[in-house]
Amino acid sequence: MTNYLKFFRLSLFLVSIFSLTGSSLVFSLETVEELATPLVPRSTFFSDPNHTSVQISPDGQWLSYLAPHQGVLNIWVGDPKNLESMHPITTNSKRGIAGYIWAYTNRHIIYVDDFEGNEDWRIYRVDVVSGEKLTLASFNKVQARLAARSENHPEEILVELNQRRPDLFDIYRLNILSGKLTPVMENNTFADFVYDHDLNVKVGMQTTPDGGAQLYTLNKDAKNEYVKKELFSIPQQDMLTTSPLSMDKTGDILYMIDSRKRNTGALFSLNLKSKKTHLMSQDKRVDIDNVLTHPTKKTVQATSATYEKTEWTILDKTIAPDFKYLKTVMEGELHITSRSLDDNTWIVVYDRDNGAPHYYLYDRPSQKARFLFPSRPELDNVILTNMDPVIIKSRDNLSLVSYLSLPYNLRMDKAKIETPVPLILLVHGGPAARDSWGYDAEHQWLTNRGYAVLSVNYRGSTGFGKKFANAGNGEWAAKMHDDLIDAVNWAIQQGITTSDKVAIMGGSYGGYATLVGMTKTPDVFACGVDIVGMSNLETMFQTIPEYWKPMYTLLKIMVGGDPETEVGRQFLASRSPLTFVDNIKKPLLIGQGANDPRVKQAQSDQIVKVMESKKIPVTYVLYPDEGHGFAKPENRLSFYAVTESFLAKNLGGRFEPINDAFKNSSIEIKAGKQEIPGLVPTSTASVAPKSSNNNKAEDCISSPFPEVLPSQPT
Q1: Contact 355, 384 (CB under 8 A)
Q2: How many CB atoms within 10 Å of residue 574?
Q3: Domain stop point among 266, 290, 305
């Protein structure tokens, strides 16, 4: 199995036509008759995917994936040699299944969901043969996490529950056949754990008052109680770039990403007995972001690192021929997402910027890859654009790895662009996350509507070493925002857009950045779209989930203010968009989920209330059955319908009429309905062809699976 780089689960923030690296961009606009592209329906980009989370069972006998069943994402299984045999084995009818894993029984799948976005994960299992379902862990106001599994104990898994105290998680063994929970450790200390191949707790991480962490080895004494012994400490400045990952098969070797005594996070092995470390893989530009280990031997076979694009380093020569062959199968970034225990069968996905990801079943003995399906078949029939890496220099000379997508009808030429186009600055969340190259639904949707789209890895983004990550500390609404403005100015200087045709849009921290843009630099942006963004940093601290509390000090350092002191509260107010509502000059659209546990509804309510009291126009869209983002396809489609109509009004791009986009959605427009063309009579609506496309969006809002994707704010 591919082990994706796992920063601590409670860590809060935790092929291209051309490459542009700072040289002058040149474009020409060919005739509309020759290059005009059809308006692609929103459903092609934002309904649920036909295939996602594709996996092979441990014995290689079953293929599985998430796909719509009766309009909701459910688990499908079948014979990998006969795709006609695929059939749904779950019947979730509400929000859809957030994620799943195979049990080592080879006939059970363990999956999770929550209640309308509240992230109180519940664990279930289903028998793929009989269809029998069993609730394994479902408690009110409790988050259940899948922690570990092993082929040595096929009928058991480890789970973590914060039932006893909401800020920390106790460990249990869970029998997936009976549902019996057996306590393993009552935890009053640790924020995270590493387990060995026999489901023993091996390492615990305890946060320290200075924002760092101390790691301990954990071993049972004669009384069968865990005794901790200091292993090593992680300074605060390394917290976003240093993390224990997993154990080798012996349980004596710890694999970890480590940036201590260096800048970028490299892969090391640490012998828990001798305390000796060994450097296994590194990239001096960026952190190691993916570690591929053998499914049973637990040896590291390859690593990847991503600067502009992902590059693999092979450590185990036995898989070198496999990678060599797989690189010839299809263009795009290669990723191995699932492997059988005998290592004879791999699930391989190729990610592209101008097309849907394509899945293959790879047979190692014959060294043959068989095409399975694209994640979204309809994308193979539409014209998509490229996403091009660009390196933009900040005003203080930082290199900002960014990604630019242009409308398809713009071509490289020797002349400057004849007619600049509107630009959407699309800001990623986190902020301890990053933008990467590949298929991006929002990039493709917006470029199809006639906009250029620019995504910027501003300081504070992760993946580029600890210096770059820590450069964002205390710089919310300051230098982090300056980076975004520098990127906008770059785009204007390149002739891509004009100063009056730039919008800012993003979710979570990206939504906060949108509100900062509208209040701090109100003359830069023609409009803004804030999705679950923070408007008041003091109340953000007051309402964070209890299970984020172990990282509270680190959060204070990152934001730069302490809400427990008067000076700190004044600082937080100075960086809160709510303080500067009077500065808003341009139209603003806000989207919010009522059950968001990370950015509470009050964050949006507060700024909307003040704007209305001051008679500043704002459009506010609320979803009573959503959390931190919009997981239900009907809700996504309705919000993006409002968004593209809003953008068209303020920037002049194309848009698909709203028509029946609100069907089956819980959308509530709490304010500013009159600001959206199509919701009130208008004579300026654009006309788009009707479509029967039923293609759907794979972007999961979050996941409770530590080994797949940590449950972190983004």
Answers
A1: yes
A2: 14
A3: 305
Give the rounded distance of the alpha carbon of 334 from its chain centre.
18
Q: Which residues span the domain enclosing 296? A: 189-305
Co-location of 550 and 588 in the same domain: no
Active site residue 338: no
pLDDT for residue 293 is more than 90: yes
**Per-residue pLDDT band at 483 (split at 50, 70, 90):** very high
pLDDT greater than 80 at residue 705: no
Q: Are 399 and 381 spatial neighbours (Cβ–Cβ below 8 Å)?
A: no
Q: Which among 283, 289, 482, 596 is annotated as catalytic?
A: 596
Residue 569 lies in a domain: yes
Query: Which of 297, 298, 301 has the alpha carbon at shortest distance from 281?
Result: 301
17 confidence band (pLDDT: 50, 70, 90): very low
- Give pTM, 2 decimals: 0.90
Catalytic residue among 461, 628, 665, 703: 628
Highest mean pLDDT among 3-7, 23-27, 224-228: 224-228
Q: For the chain, what is the total number of helices (H) and then of strands (E)? A: 12, 39
Residue 197 annotated in active site: no
419 within some domain: yes
Q: Which of 243, 340, 508, 604 is catalytic?
A: 508
Query: Is the pLDDT assigned to residue 704 strictly greater than 60?
Result: no
285, part of any domain: yes
Share of the chain above pLDDT 70, in %: 89
Q: How many domains does the chain have?
A: 4
Distance CA 449, CA 163 (A): 47
Of the residues 305, 331, 363, the one at which a domain ends: 305
From residue 496, alpha-carbon distances to 411, 449, 460, 521, 653 in Å are: 12, 15, 26, 20, 15
* 387 and 423 inside one domain: yes
- Our answer to whether residue 628 is catalytic in this structure is yes
